[in-house]
Amino acid sequence: MCCWAKLKSSGWVYPTAVLSLYGFFANCRVAEPFLTPYLIGPHKNISEEVVTNYLFPIWTYSYLAILFPVFLLTDFLRYKPLIIIQGLFLVINYVLLCFARSLPALAFLQVNYAVVTSTEVAYFSYIYSVIPAEKYQRATGYLRSAMLAGYTFGASLGQVLISLAGMDYFYINAITLGIVSVAFLISFWLPMPQRGLFFKGKEAATVGSESQQEGTAVVDEAEEAVRDEDEAGFRTEKMESGGSGGSGGGWCSGDNVAHAGQLLWRSFRESYSSRNLIYWSLWWALATAGYGQVFNYIQLMWDHIEPSATSSIYNGGVEAVCTLVGAAAALSVGHIKVAWAVWGELALGMFSAVGACAVFLMALTSSIWACYAGYVIFKASYMLLITITTFQIASNLSMECYALTFGINTFAALSLQTILTGIVVDEAALGLDIVTQFIIYGSYYATISVLFLIRGTYTACAYHYNPEQTEAKEQEHEHEVISAERF
Fold first, then answer.
1. Most distant CA pair in the chain: distance in Å?
2. Residue 457: which residues within 8 A CB-CB, separation 6 or more?
3. Do the beta carbons of residue 52 and residue 297 sit within 8 Å?
4. CB atoms < 10 A from the CB of 451, how many?
5. Buried b vs exposed e over 155-164: b needs ≥16 C-beta within 10 Å?
6. Does residue 401 contact residue 254 with C-beta atoms inside 8 Å?
């Protein structure tokens, strides 16, 4: 008991530990690698065409519709309620998977899962509102490690239970229901943040709006607003922690909403004021859209090559290997000494070409093991590049700017993914078979590769012939970063 009280009073350790525990159990979804065999098997008895062209697109459309409102609500409600909602909807998701049989109920399941995925932004943003800035890097590492560990353990456990114990898919889903229920209970232990990144309370909003009316120069105005926001945020936190009246109404006041809108707009301008960051964000949106399509439909490709009804499947083992290889690739980024401003776009083009080849291999091979290998290569290359991209964006922006950039890039990626789904997958449009879909996804990644190879070659040649100008631009960019950190 004494140790527990000491942990809670440690400041950053307690929320990081609880959120890491939540991340582990929420991502330890034993049944997830076997979702498609479960749906098209005797338990649900849904055809592969219905799953591909009707059910899965519902998730994409719902995710797009929910994501942006959830992003704003996450900061407005101060993160914890959205994490609790994610845990609750995870429980509902596996209750439906276990007991729902009708097609409308399974269609609702896709909408329910869209809520789960859209609230992931709360998981990634919560920790930055409750711990000091100097602990951001360590806490982020712990949270991502917990997620990867949970996913790897869940996939491995599912494979062992199916391959060695011969367990039925229904019981795999029941075990997953128990595990995500633990995550739901853990979410209540999280401390409630006193402020959000954008919605900071009535007094902060009032001070911020007054500072904008003073008519001073733009840079001086921004700096004064920041100082006022920090002081007002401190006073607001004291009022809330001391139980003083009026803070609750201020949270929903028009001044606070207007102040949050101004800060969102200022963060948006700062995030996309650099041409280099725009290129990194463009790759993020384009590549993530293609990755989402491959990830969503890979189990259908595996079942097409090696039907789960008549063959042994190793989906869980492959997902575990992918996670480990991808984590190793992501960790290697921290040990690679490269001038990313010069060679980064070329690296994006080269590894996107590797990803395109891997997708074509998955589409054209008749060997399940070659398809597994192609998926491992594809996922590892994506995780490597998305880690580099995330690092480049996050290291050059303040936390407010990064949170907004993460949301906008994700929304853009999901919009592109929705267009791909609506044209290629949806039965109301082309409704293509799974092999043709993957050929299109490979061509899509090849197009991304060509674009960034051309841009990367131009950047590298410009540096080769005029290195002084490139270094001057880097120094100018570093100056922009310093100004961004004043938020």
1. 74
2. 346
3. yes
4. 18
5. bbbbbebbee
6. no
Please tell me what DSSP assigns to residue 33. Answer: G
Distance CA 127, CA 124 (A): 7
Write out the DSSP string of 297-350. HHHHHHHHHS-TTTS---HHHHHHHHHHHHHHHHHHHTT----HHHHHHHHHHH
Of 419, 377, 400, 427, the C-alpha closest to 484 is 400
Reading the block at residue 441, the tokens are 């996804």
Question: Which ranges of 242-274 would DSSP assign to H, the alpha helix?
Answer: 247-251, 254-271
Is 287 within 8 Å of 448 (Cβ atoms)?
yes
Distance CA 457, CA 460 (A): 5
Residue 7 CA to residue 113 CA, distance in Å, equals 33
What's at 299, amino acid-wise? Answer: Q
For the chain, how big is the Rg over CA atoms in Å? 24
Per-residue pLDDT of the chain (487 residues; tens, 9 = 90+): 445 455 554 578 888 899 999 999 999 999 999 999 999 888 888 888 888 888 889 998 999 888 888 877 777 777 889 899 999 999 999 999 999 888 999 999 999 999 999 888 788 778 777 777 677 667 777 887 888 889 999 999 999 999 998 899 999 999 999 999 999 999 999 888 776 555 554 444 444 444 444 433 433 444 444 444 444 443 344 334 343 333 444 455 565 566 566 666 676 666 666 777 888 888 989 999 999 999 989 999 999 998 887 778 888 999 999 888 877 876 776 667 777 777 778 888 999 999 999 999 999 999 999 999 999 999 988 988 887 887 777 666 665 566 677 778 888 898 999 999 989 888 888 888 899 999 999 999 999 999 999 988 888 787 767 765 555 554 544 444 433 333 3
Of 320, 295, 286, 282, nearest to 59 (Cα)?
Answer: 295
Using CA atoms, how far apart are residues 146 and 19, in angstroms rounded to an integer? 9
8 A C-beta contact, residue 165 and residue 316: no
Q: Hey, what amino acid is at 193?
A: P
The alpha carbon of residue 373 and the mean position of all alpha carbons in its chain are separated, in whole angstroms, by 24
Question: Apex CA 442: angle with CA 37 and CA 49, to 5°?
Answer: 35
The number of residues in the chain equals 487
Q: In this structure, how many other beta carbons lie within 10 angstroms of the beta carbon of residue 25?
A: 25
